[in-house]
Design goal:
The protein has about 200 residues and is an alpha/beta fold. It has one domain: 3-Layer(aba) Sandwich (Rossmann fold). About 35% of the residues lie in helices and about 20% in strands. The longest helix has 17 residues. It starts with a helix and ends with a helix.
Length: about 200
C-alpha cells in the first residue's frame, strides 16, 4: 500500500520532471515500477528505462506495466554500473535508493551518473535522518534493515554540493513530506541541473 509520504515523493519528482521538459528518463532502482506507472502518464516523455537489481521486483514491474506503447524498457542491472553504459537520457531519477549502497560505493555512482551519463536533470531522494527521532529511532538505528546509511539535511546537502561543484551542476535540496520544526521533513530531494542547460536557465530566470 502506498503511504502518504511515498505519494509526496512521487509528486515532488514528477513535478520536477515536468519542469525539466525531459523526453528520455531513466529510473535507477525502479523497484516494482510505481514511479514508472506515473511517468507513463506524462505525454511529453518519449522513452523510459527502468533498471532494477532484484529479479523479483523486476518481475513485478513487468507484470504491472503491460501496455506501454513501446515507450518503456525494463532491464536488470545495478545503479552503480548501468550509468556507465547509457547515453542520451535527459533525466535520471534515484528514488530512495542511494541509502542501500555502501557509502564507499558512492564515488562509483558519482562517476557513472554525473561524469559519464551527465543528463541535464538528476533527481535523488533519500530519508532525512534528522527526522528519525520522531519515528522512535535513536542513535544508529535506520528506517529499514537494508539501509547502509541515512543522512541529515546538512550532510546530504554537503554531499550534493560537492558533486555539483565537481561536475558542473547546480543543486537545490528540497524537503519532502510534512515539515516539523527542528527536524525538517521525513524525506529530502536533491534536484541537480547541469549548468548552462535549458533547465538551469529556467531556474535562474
Amino acid at each position: 500500500m502506498t503511504t502518504t509520504l511515498h505519494r509526496d515523493r512521487l509528486v515532488a519528482v514528477l513535478q520536477r520532471v515536468r519542469q525539466s521538459g525531459a523526453r528520455r528518463v531513466v529510473d535507477l532502482g525502479c523497484g516494482d515500477g510505481e514511479l514508472i506507472t506515473q511517468l507513463l502518464d506524462e505525454p511529453g516523455i518519449e522513452k523510459i528505462l527502468g533498471i532494477e537489481l532484484s529479479p523479483r521486483r523486476l518481475l513485478r514491474a513487468r507484470e504491472r506495466l503491460t501496455s506501454t506503447q513501446g515507450r518503456l524498457e525494463l532491464r536488470q542491472g545495478s545503479m552503480l554500473t548501468e550509468p556507465h553504459r547509457l547515453d542520451g537520457y535527459d533525466c535520471a531519477i534515484l528514488l530512495e535508493t542511494i541509502e542501500h549502497l555502501d557509502p564507499r560505493e558512492l564515488s562509483q555512482l558519482e562517476q557513472g551518473l554525473f561524469a559519464r551519463l551527465a543528463p541535464e536533470t538528476i533527481l535523488i531522494s533519500t530519508p532525512n535522518a534528522d527526522y528519525n527521532p520522531l519515528l522512535g529511532l535513536t542513535g544508529r538505528q535506520f528506517r529499514h534493515p537494508e539501509h547502509r546509511f541515512e543522512w541529515g539535511r546538512a550532510r546530504f546537502l554537503r554531499w550534493a554540493e560537492g558533486i555539483a561543484d565537481r561536475h558542473g551542476y547546480g543543486v537545490q535540496r528540497v524537503d519532502v513530506g510534512e515539515l516539523e520544526t527542528g527536524y525538517g521533513a521525513p524525506s529530502q530531494l536533491a534536484h541537480f541541473s547541469r549548468l548552462g542547460s535549458k533547465v538551469d536557465c529556467l531556474h535562474r530566470a
